[in-house]
Structures are given as structure tokens and as C-alpha cells.
Amino acid sequence: MALYPLVRPLMFALDAETAHRATIAALKLWPKRKPPLFPPSLRSTVAGLEFPSPVGLAAGFDKDAEFPDQMLALGFGFVEVGTLTPRPQPGNPRPRLFRLREDRAVINRLGFNNQGRVAAFERLKRCGHRGIVGVNIGANKDSPDLIADYVCGVEAMVQIARYLTINISSPNTPGLRGLQDEGALDELLAAVRGARRPGGPPLFLKVAPDFGDGDPERIVRAALDHGVDGLIVANTTVSRPPLKSRHADQSGGLSGEPLKPLALEALRNFRTASGGQIPLIGVGGIANADDAWDRIRAGASLVQLYTAMVYRGPGIARAIARGLAERLTREGMASIAESVGSDPA
Ligand SMILES: Cc1cc2nc3c(=O)[nH]c(=O)nc-3n(C[C@H](O)[C@H](O)[C@H](O)COP(=O)(O)O)c2cc1C
């Protein structure tokens, strides 16, 4: 995407959400070509699925499943659509999305703005199925029963999703992160387990990067007890590491470069807690092949990104994949699986 450096100043002249809508409009027009061929060393099997490249698109960019084929064609090894709630909802009032340019970061308090799962289901039925498209599931803000929203989300999407993600870590829906607490998490995972089908898609759980001591052990135990197939570490942070931008004090979830150390530490904690018993997907501040490589060596079988694409364009997925393949060659490794967890410290 040599075009992106030319387009970026135009995008950055718009407010962040208008720029995002313009990007979506452009991507929907992008040809649905076949995904590129990746070097065989990048192939891996995780939770029973064969991924052509370990570099995926994180949830939140294509919330309504409008252009997953295009993102696969642009070089993402897999795409996670959503978060989708049972009913459509407008999300929080604007402005609710902020670019922190000096920090290469974003703060969002979108609040699961989405057209609802029925509209997404219809779109996914029509999409090309040329790659792995996962569906990220959430709860409506005004839901009287958050757990019931996840259960019906799983029941509805189980037929169409290549994998499902239970998102209980977005900071912008009141009460949602409370589902990560001990009793609530057990109740949620037991209910979701009952909604799955034998032979159905694997189920991932997406967690926050903001945890106390002992939480990763507790969450790993619950995940293993309830047959969860992978943990996505992590969502945006509500903490505020030192930031330079004038938007630093906006409320919401922070993503991008300042999240990187926190997300890497969270991943290491989950790797230590799980001892490799459950696959981990590393997310948060990944912007180049070195970041992805570090995350894989710390225990991630796959990685995802969002914010770095805002700053570097969609060509970033292919560039990272290329860089990872080069590192494998340099290290004399035949596959990504060999490097997973090779440097857990
Ligand atoms: C604007 C925006 C919207 C997001 N929406 C969602 C969402 O709907 N569901 C979700 O699970 N994560 C969402 N995320 C979190 C990302 O999937 C990812 O976990 C986080 O941004 C860290 O990765 P990054 O630093 O590469 O962006 C969103 C992130 C951003 C920046």
C-alpha cells in the first residue's frame, strides 16, 4: 500500500470517526481478490484452525462485517469482526474516538456501536469464505441480562463463524468487565458452553490488560474448566501511562504504542499462568515485525493489531508477515510454532 502515505494527511485532516467512515467506504469498494500466498513457514494450526499467517485484524475495525474479504485480500491472515450485540445500538455520543498522534495511540469510548448481529449474519453468509473470519460477541448496554446476550450471540453465530470470541473486556459498556470477576466468569462460561455445538467453531475469551496479582491464574483455570480454546490478551487499557497528546485525558480505552508494554506483560503473565496449556493470541501496540516476534516468543500463537494500521495503513499486515518469515529463516526455524514461547521471561 504505497498509496497510504499520500492518503494519510487527508485522513488526518478529518476527525477520527469521519476518517474511519471514509476508510470503510473505500475498503468496501476494494476488490475482493484472493488472499495473498504466504510463505509456508507462517502456517500454523491453532485451536484446530489452519492459519495461513499469524497476523490478524483485531476486533473493532470491521464491527459490522462489511469488508472481511477485502481485509483478507490486503494480507491479514485472519479477521475478527464485531463486537456484535444482539440488538443494534448507536453507541456513546460523539466525539468518542480520538487520535493521539504524538503517542501513536487512540482512545475510544465508542460503546459497541453496531448494526446488530442479524445484519452481520446476513453479510457473513454472502462473504467469500476465502479465509478465517472470527466473530466477536458482546452485550447490549441496556440489557437486563448480560450473560443471556452472550448465550444468544453464540447460538446465532455458531453456524457462520470460523471462531467465536467472548468479549468481556471492553471498558465502554458499564458492568461488562465485571464478568471477568470470579463468580460471574464461571457463570458466563458455563452458560456459553451450553450454547456451543459439538464440532462447532473454537471459542476464545478476550481479556483486559488491567489485572491484579492472581487474576491470570484464576482466568486460565476458569477457561480450561469450561473448554475455552484460546485467550486473546488484550483489549484496550483504562490506565494512562505518560502521554503527550492533548487528548490524553479523554475517558475510554487506550490502544496503540503506549499499550505495548502493558499488553506484553499481560501476555507473559498469562503464559506463566497457563504453562502453554491454552493458546494465547497477543494484541496491543503491535506495529512491526519485531513487536510481533516478541509477542510470539513470549507465548502468543497468533497476533492481532488495529491502531498501528491507522498510522501505517493496511499494508502493515503483509510487511509484518514478511518480517516474521525472515526472522524464522535467520533463526533456522521451520515454523512459527517452533518460536511460540521460546522467550517467556
Ligand atoms: C476504535 C477501536 C474500537 C475497538 N472496538 C473493539 C470492539 O468492538 N471489540 C473488541 O473486542 N475490541 C475492540 N477494540 C480493541 C482492539 O481489538 C484491540 O484489542 C486493542 O485496540 C489493542 O490493539 P492495538 O493496540 O493494536 O489497537 C477496539 C479498538 C479501537 C482502537
Descriptive notes:
The model has no long low-confidence stretch (mean pLDDT 93). An eight-stranded parallel beta barrel has the order 3-4-7-8-9-10-12-13, surrounded by four helices. The chain has a three-stranded antiparallel sheet with strand order 5-6-11, with no helix packed on it. The chain has a two-stranded antiparallel ribbon with strand order 1-2. It starts with a helix and ends in a 6-residue tail after the last helix. The chain is globular and about 50 Å long. A hairpin with a 4-residue loop joins strand 5 (97-100) and strand 6 (105-108). Helices cover 37% and strands 17% of the residues. The chain is α/β, with parallel strands linked by helices and 345 residues long. Helix 5 runs parallel beside helix 6 (182-195), helix 7 (215-225) packs across helix 8 (260-274) and helix 9 (289-297) crosses helix 11 (316-331). It has helices at 4-13, 16-29, 68-73, 117-126, 146-157, 182-195, 215-225, 260-274, 289-297, 307-312, 316-331, 336-339, and strands at 44-46, 49-51, 55-57, 78-84, 97-100, 105-108, 132-137, 163-167, 203-207, 230-233, 253-256, 280-283, 300-305. Bound molecules: flavin mononucleotide. Flavin mononucleotide binds next to strand 4, strand 6, strand 11 and helix 10.
